[in-house]
Amino acid sequence: MNVSAAASLRLELSLVQPVLRSAAARMWHSDAGLPGRYRHYLRAMHQVIRASVPLMERAAARCERLPQDPLSPPLARYLRAHAEQERGHDDWLLTDAEASGTAPCELTGSVPPAHVAALVGAQYYWIEHSHPVALLGYIAVLEGNAPAPGLAGRLARETGLPQAAFETVRLHADLDDGHSADLDRLIGRLPLDPARRSLVAVSALHTVTALAELFDRIATAPHVSESAHD
């Protein structure tokens, strides 16, 4: 078993974790702008999460075109199964947005900004032009930084928005720890050579940087009045 690959990735991520945590803390800072920032967060995360299942399906299909690659069969199985676990999570965000007073069409109809495209789009490049194992670095970051268990309740109290507007935050706080453990076990089983380990790490570190930028943009964006629902 390649146990050290999972441990090595987690160690590398621990070194940059403060950057992401600081950006998240700025985004969730308690002030009058928090309701608007939360609505902005729902829109941005919908743009990110609606790509999750298509990314995993694309990566699995690419694996299935590489049958002689020893990584591909177990990786494809994991990605197909995980895609089913994640299916519909973008719809949760639409429901939360509606509960927060934002029409779902404001999420589905908005143009994703360049920093969202940079976060997600790098994965398409690595899947097609390097190896689909890169996607594991992306997944490791997104699921390894689950919302804190008490965040949904705090946001509901401090924004004055209904509890129903925070279901995605609440559910991911419960689900993502288990998903991270599954991913670590997979990485431990995969026959990763140094080049593939490096690719997973590069993907993960890019994801940290891009996700921190996304949070910082939400934290510093000008917000319109509450009546306009950001």
UniProtKB/TrEMBL annotation:
Cited InterPro entries: Haem_Oase-like_multi-hlx
Pfam families: Haem_oxygenas_2
The protein's name: Iron-containing redox enzyme family protein
